[in-house]
Amino acid sequence: MTARTVTIRGDSIPVVLPNKRDARLHTAAVIISIHLIGMFALGFKVSIPQILSAILTAALVDVAITFFQTRRLVWPASGMLTGSGVALILRLVGAESHDYWTWDRWWWFAGIAGGSLLTKFVIRWRGMHIFNPSNVGLVVAFIVFGKERIEPLDFWWAPLDFWMLLAYLIIIGGGIVITRRLHLLEMAVVFWVVLAVGLGVLALSGHCMTASWSPTPVCDGDFWRVLVTSPEVLVFLFFMITDPRTIPMRRPARTLFSVTIGVLATVLIAPQTIEFGAKVALLSSLALLSPLRWLYDRVWAPVGEKETSGLGQILSRSARPGVRPIVQVGRGALVGLALSLCGLAVVVAGAPARAPAVAAPPAPPAVEVDRDSIPEVAIDESVSEIAFDVTPEFAADLAVQLVENLAIEGRATLEADGGLLGFADAGARLAEMQALLDTALATDRRPVDVFSFDALRLRVADEPGQSGAAFIFEGVGTVETIIYDPAGEPLEVETSEFDSEFMLLQVAGERWLIVEVSSSG
Known about the structure:
The chain is an alpha+beta fold. Helix content is 50%, strand content 18%. The strands form 5 sheets. It has a 5-stranded mixed beta sheet with strand order 10-11-12-13-14. A hairpin with a 2-residue loop joins β8 (208-211) and β9 (214-219). The longest helix is centred in the middle third of the chain and has 26 residues, at 324-349. The chain is elongated.
C-alpha cells in the first residue's frame, strides 16, 4: 500500500491508500459490474442510492473505527466490499425494477451494511474477526426482520440471454481468477460439487419449493438445475465462503471446511418450502460454521502439535507401518458411513418440502365456453421476468380457464351451490363470492354475471411473492348481470362496461383459480 500523511490540527496523520494488487478491490470490481448489469439489463429491484447507502455507510464505519484504533486514515477496502456485498444480496419486499434513483427505504441498506461491518470489530477471538461481515449481517437481518420486509436476491435472475451470459462470465471468470490467485479455487469447486450432489439427492426425493419467479412449484430436476446454476450460489461460493480472513489456514482444513459447508447447506435447505427459506439456509451454513474454523486447523495441525492432545496421539500412532492398513480400511468405512448418514439426513430433513403423492382433484363442472369469442391475448413484457415459458398457446388456454371460472361462479350462484365455487375461486375471491351467495339466498335474488371480453392482456402480478408468481388478466368488455329468482326465472337484466383485473394462481392441481378481481384505475 502507498503511505502518505495529512495534517489535522497540527497532528500528522498517516494515510494508507489502496493497493491495486488487493484482491478485495478486484472482488469489489466484479460485484459492482454485476450491480450495473443487474440494474440496467436484468431488472434487479435495487437503486443507485440504495447501493451507495450501503457502501458509504460501511466505508465510514470502517474508516472511523480503524482511525480510532490505529490513528491512521486507511482506505476502507473491507468496508466497501461489505457494503457492496450487502447491496447485491439484500432486496426490499415490494420494490420495483428500473427505478434507478429511488431513495425508497434506503436506511435498510445503510443499517444492515453498517451493522454487518461492525461485527468485524466487535465479534473477535484471538485477535481476528470470527464471521464474514456481510454474511452474518444478512443472515441476522433476514431472520430478525422476516420475509414481510426484506429478502435475499433470487436464485433465478433472468432468461439466458446476452446479458445473463455476460453476468455468468463476469462471476465465473472473475471468481476463478481471484480464488486461483488466493489459492482458494479448490475450496470453491469442492463446495459446489458437494452441494450439487446433496441437492441431487434432495431432488430425487421429490423436493419442491415455491418462488416469486415461477407460477408453479419448482420441483425435482428443475429445483436441482436452478440452484446448482444459480448466480447467487456462484457469488456465495466464489466471494463469500472464500474470504481468507474467516476460513481455516491450512489447505486440507479448508477443503474439509468447504465440504461441511456444502453438506450443512443441503441439510438446511432440505425442509424449506419457499425460496426465502432456502436462500437464508444457504447463507446460514457459512455463518454457523465460521466460529468453528479453528477446530479444522487443529485437526490438520503438524504432528508435533497434534501429539499434545489425545487426537494427536491417535493420529500419530496410526502412521505406524503395521497399523496403517487397518486404519485405512477403518477410514474408508467411516467415510462410507458418513456419506450414507448425510444422504439419509438430507432425505429425512426434506420431508416437509416433498411433493405429496395425491389423487387427481375432481374434474370441474362442465360449462360451455366459446373459444372463438375470446379475443387474442396480448402478452405484457413483465412475463419475461419469470422462469416460465409463456407461449401464445398457454396464454390462450389460461384465458379459457378464466372464462370457465367466471361461468362456474355464475352457475354456483344460480344453483345456490357454494361447493362449486371451490372449482373456480380461492383466497379473497372465494370469500367475496361466498358472501354474495349468502346474500342471494337471504334475498331470493340471485345475480349472475355473464362476461364478454373485447380485449385481454396478460401480465405478471407483483404478489403473492414467495407463494409463487401469479398472472393477471387485464380485461375490458361488457358484463350482463341477470337477476334470477329461486326457480331460475330471470327477473331483470342490466348491461354495463367493465375494465377489470383478474388475478389467477395455480392452487388446485392443474387448474388456475381466480384469487382476486379488482377494477383497473
